[in-house]
Design brief:
151 residues
Length: 151
């Protein structure tokens, strides 16, 4: 009975690693490039070969390793570039085909933004919330309005 009492009184102490873990200095750039390429594939309706689990993990690791700002600003730039391309396609359509093209591009954009939002869910919950940024899906809607509709 006394041996059991000694076990209950013993406390465990968790100590930090003795050697700091060195991160690749280009980790943020490399990981963003992977995510950027995936976003381009999603926007081009070629997402079947993508591993959403791996992409989510990459986005998660960027946020926890303090690359959330790079991830968010890169996403914003990528959305704007894609929408500028879309805007030229919609603008080139004339008459009745204009509305069909606009509706088609809008549907594709919405679907793409839902998939991108799923990949960047952790960034949405943590980084966006703490930095008072616009959530991913809403960012896509706002950029559509600013780039495609208002031009």
């Amino acid at each position: 009975m006394a041996a059991q009492g000694n076990r209950k009184n013993r406390q465990f102490k968790i100590e930090p690693f003795k050697h700091p873990v060195k991160m690749d200095p280009k980790y943020g750039e490399k990981t963003w490039k992977v995510l950027e390429d995936a976003i381009h594939e999603i926007n081009n309706h070629n997402a079947s070969g993508l591993s959403f689990e791996e992409l989510y993990r990459n986005a998660y690791n960027m946020v926890i390793n303090k690359f959330g700002d790079q991830l968010y600003s890169g996403l914003e730039e990528t959305i704007i570039k894609h929408l500028q391309f879309i805007e030229t396609k919609v603008e080139a359509a004339q008459g009745e085909s204009f509305l069909r093209e606009l509706k088609l591009r809008w549907d594709h954009h919405n679907k793409s933004m839902q998939m991108i939002r799923d990949i960047l869910m952790y960034m949405d919950r943590i980084y966006v919330k703490h930095q008072n940024k616009v959530p991913v899906h809403q960012l896509g809607l706002d950029k559509w309005r600013d780039v495609v509709v208002r031009n």
